[in-house]
Amino acid sequence: MFYISKENWDKIISYARAREEQKGHEIGGMAVITRDDDDDYIIQEPVILKQTTSGATCTMDKEALANYYVEMGMKYGNDVHFLWWHSHAKMKAFWSGTDTNTMKEYDNGKWSAFLVVNVRQEHKFSVQYWDPVPSLVDDEINFLNAKEDTIDEAIINEVTALCDEEIQIINNGWGKAYNQSGWNKPYGQGYIWEPQEVKELKKPNSDPEALNDVIKYAEKLLNAYCDGTLKRRGWNKKVKKYNALCETAKIEYRIRDISAQDLEQASYYIFGSDLVVDLNGDSVIEEEESNALAYYGGCS
Fold first, then answer.
1. How far apart are CA 276 and CA 300, in angstroms?
2. What is the mean pLDDT of residues 102-119?
3. In sequence order, what are the residues at sequence separation of 6 or more whose Cβ sits closer than 8 angstroms to the Cβ of residue 201?
4. pLDDT-based confidence at residue 266 (cuts at 50, 70, 90)
5. Where along the chain do its domains lie?
6. Which residues have CB under 8 Å from 161's CB, separation 6+?
7. For 279, which DSSP code?
8. How far from 238 is each of 190, 191, 288, CA to CA, in Å?
């Protein structure tokens, strides 16, 4: 069986929350797995390394990772396994195609372990067996103790120091360039939505960030509605136009319709991902994750 202390679990979740709060990005790191006297495996010392992050990826610096392996090897010897963990920010915890390809880089002995989490503490833990036949098996993590759920200031400082933002320079078709953090010059209130729509929908359908971009836009709509800068009529217009642009760009996701009553009641309790569906109208998150919408009905 696999175990982790609540303290170490909270550290991983704090890393995830800190980077999501800073940039809305993923973040990744490593941990060691040792075996105790009862032949159980204990996940210890979760850390982050120097890396580049975005809304859909986190790439650790190769030199930093190599140094980490040397340091842990000297500390624990040969009888140790490694856990690669990373976050999906506010998206559901699942193995994406990018994740499964990355797993192949961690071929280490007979098996390797992988963990993906999100800011809600939802997670997926799997063990990849390499010998004799490669197979990915879902497993469970058990907790050793409990600890208050907070983000330590030291975690926030460490995330700030070791994470760089992945910047993408994109031309909007109007002769103005802007990057992932914002426009290259300040704009007035009237420019909040339209430039973001163009930016997010210029990505091809195969882009792994397509779903994340739609979720981010839904999140922006929710934030604007909650702070009063976007009214119900404006909401309908934005959603209708955005979905039309998604169709034109051949992005396979849409923002779902939601009644005025449900929007008013649920807007403070849901995430942008709760509002995103695929072309079949199915939610992009697990059914049990959409508790607020399930409670208020009307958004199944």
1. 11
2. 86
3. 213, 245, 246, 248, 249, 251
4. low
5. 2-165, 170-296
6. none
7. T
8. 13, 13, 28
286 in Cβ contact with 92 (< 8 Å) = yes
Q: How would you classify the pairing of strands 28-35 and 41-48?
A: antiparallel
Helix axes 194-201, 210-226, angle to 10 degrees: 160
- Identify the three-state secondary structure at position 99: helix
Digit-coded pLDDT (tens) for 7-61: 999 999 999 999 999 999 999 999 999 999 888 999 999 999 999 999 888 999 9
Question: Tell me: the pLDDT tens digits for 174-203?
Answer: 333 334 333 333 333 333 333 334 344 444
**Residue labelled with tokens 């882009």:** 207
Q: Please, what's the b/e burial string for 58-90 (b: 16 or more CB within 10 A of its CB; e: otherwise)? A: bebeeeebeebeeebeeebeeebbbbbbbbbbb
Instruction: Tell me if 74 sits within 8 A of 101, measured CB to CB.
Output: no
Predicted model pTM: 0.54
Per DSSP, the chain holds a count of helices (H) and strands (E) of 9, 16
282-298 pLDDT per residue, tens: 887 654 344 434 333 33
Task: Tell me the chain's radius of gyration from C-alpha atoms.
Answer: 21
Fold of 2-165: Cytidine Deaminase; domain 2 (3.40.140)
